[in-house]
Amino acid sequence: MPGDRYLSSTMHTAADLAWHMRNYAMGLQHDWITPNALLYAWESDLLTVTREGFVCEIEIKVSRSDLLHDLKKPKHSQGMLLNGAFMEKPPGRGRTHGEAREEERRRKGEVRCRRPNYFCFALPPAIYRKLPAGKLPPYAGVYTVDEQGRVHEERRPIQLHAERIAQEDLLGLARRMHLRYWDELRRARHTQVGDPGP
Fold first, then answer.
1. Rounded to an integer, what distance in angstroms lies between the CA atom of residue 108 and that of residue 88?
2. Which residues contact 57 (CB under 8 A, 6 or more apart)?
3. How much is the CA Rg of the chain, to the nearest whole Å?
4. Cα separation of 138 and 155, whole Å?
5. Nearest CA-CA partner of 136 in 82, 190, 85, 175
């Protein structure tokens, strides 16, 4: 759709927005900042953990269509974030590792899915300004990142629950970051070895 993409050469990519949000979280003295985290039944663009052990999920969006698509996902449409409802998936449909883990928790008697304490969107100001009123869920915080990389809190997120992150979950995040680091190092080494050079 014309005008939908965040294309200006002076604007930021999703990686840029994630970097600026990471710096913002560091300024707030969050102890833990993990990109592309697999902690819940879905992948999170960025997870931060405060000194008090509260988790904030930040969803990075650089286009209006991507944002609207995200709002259709079960974490919003089925009340997973707001109410802790478990995902309802049609029979016969495959499940991701995170979805299967949540289904196992439900079978063991848990009544709510795991979810962050806070949920936010980070997006360019132009996309946020053009959204119709009430388009974003009321629980979601909104941060915009301008062309200079400055982060502006447009709307503070509401606290979804008061349970703190478990140590085993932090260890799981650390383990996955560790494996990702070595995997990227292996790929970089393979590229260098396979590159015949000039």
1. 17
2. 40, 44, 45, 46, 47, 116, 118, 119, 120
3. 18
4. 9
5. 82
Nearest to 80 by CA among 128, 44, 34, 49: 44
Q: Which two tokens stand for residue 192?
A: 């260098």
179 CB-near residues (< 8 Å, 6+ apart)? none
Residue 93, both tokens? 């449909």
Domain boundaries, the chain: 14-165, 166-198
- Using one digit for the tens of pLDDT, what is the confidence trace for 55-69? 999 999 999 999 999
| Strand order from edge to edge, sheet including 118-123 | 32-38, 43-49, 55-60, 118-123, 141-145, 151-155
Amino acid at 19: W
Quote the pTM value.
0.85
Cα–Cα nearest to 144, from 5, 4, 12, 32 = 12
Give the model confidence (pLDDT) of 117-144 as tens digits.
999 999 999 999 999 989 999 999 999 9
